[in-house]
Design brief:
Elements: E1 8-12, H1 21-29, E2 35-41, H2 46-56, E3 62-67, H3 76-87, E4 92-97, E5 100-102, H4 106-112, E6 118-127, H5 132-148, E7 157-160, H6 161-165, H7 170-174, H8 194-203, E8 207-218, H9 227-239, H10 244-254, H11 257-271, H12 273-303
Parallel strand pairs: 1-2, 1-4, 2-3, 6-8
Antiparallel strand pairs: 4-7, 5-8, 6-7
């Protein structure tokens, strides 16, 4: 373990990610880290190891960490990534998924983390799944950032290992299921990605920075935009009492049709068609109030 000015890169690669490795791994290597840790399941297939070897080429600063199954951990990906964190040579660790093509902006986050109490720096991502929904999400998030001056946490970030160690509750994380299979009762329906758990633990004790700069392009549809997660979110919104206007806006802004469909189906089954109709009509009022609040804030800020 080294504590110098360098940084490590930690990426988990599953067997089914083999086709992505040649498309994305060279971009990670181009960042110039002297310690790149690739976490794979043990035993890794010859096919995956050959794909990695060809993508790495003559770059001699890559370690392939084959990680055996650990039945104490329910969420395999969470376990493998953290084994990579522990094996990293440097305390500054850039991490993300193998479906991201990264760029040099990531180095900006590396410079910020570990100073002045900053434990984690998140970079923006460009959605690149190639669907119409991704175009909508990219556009709406840019608009939302401009209007609300708010940036989002993503799965592309740099964290400072000492702050991670003193923040995250490993026992809690070990009990966490993969978001696709979390089987919580409907009244408790919610999903937590393992990176969200890390972020929430870190923010309780240390500073977090959300950079608006784009650090990479995601070649696949993001987890929160996939149908099973949209459905879970729709269930949670319904039981949390979110108004139809809020859910409809989320669905339109982020191209999440399954989210709206799940919410509307629950509303129809529990309260009937009339309640569903009132929900859609009430959305107009909800949006009107939201617009009024936004412009009043803008007027006040200009006046001050």
């Amino acid at each position: 373990m080294e504590r110098g000015g360098g940084f490590s890169i930690v990426i988990s690669i599953a067997e089914w990610d083999a086709d992505l490795v040649p498309k994305t791994l060279p971009s990670w290597l181009s960042l110039g880290s002297t310690d790149v840790v690739l976490c794979v399941d043990a035993p890794a297939s010859e096919k995956l190891l050959n794909v990695i070897s060809r993508a790495v080429g003559k770059y001699d600063r890559v370690r392939v960490l084959q990680i055996p199954e650990n039945p104490a951990w329910r969420f395999r990906h969470a376990f493998t990534r953290r084994e990579g964190f522990r094996a990293a040579k440097f305390d500054k660790i850039l991490t993300g998924d193998i479906d991201i093509v990264v760029n040099k902006t990531c180095l900006m986050a590396v410079e910020l983390v570990g100073k002045d109490g900053v434990g984690l720096v998140s970079l923006a991502k460009r959605r690149g799944g190639g669907t119409l929904g991704e175009v909508v999400r990219n556009s709406s998030k840019r608009l939302f950032r401009l209007m609300r001056k708010r940036n989002f946490f993503t799965g592309l970030y740099v964290m400072y290992r000492p702050y991670w160690i003193d923040s995250e509750d490993e026992e809690q994380l070990m009990k966490t299921e993969h978001p696709h299979v979390q089987g919580l009762p409907q009244t408790q329906a919610i999903y937590l990605g393992e990176d969200v758990i890390l972020r929430d633990a870190m923010i309780a004790r240390h500073k977090i920075i959300y950079l608006p700069e784009v650090g990479g392009t995601d070649l696949r549809i993001s987890l929160e935009d996939r149908a099973p997660i949209q459905a879970k979110t729709g269930i949670r919104y319904y039981h949390d009492g979110k108004p139809m206007g809020y859910v409809l806006a989320q669905s339109i802004m982020y191209g999440r049709g399954t989210l709206l469909g799940t919410y509307a189906d629950l509303l129809f089954r529990d309260k009937g068609g009339a309640a569903l109709f009132r929900g859609y009509v009430g959305s107009i009022v909800y949006w009107g109030r939201g617009a009024q609040t936004y412009f009043l804030r803008k007027i006040r800020s200009v006046g001050n």
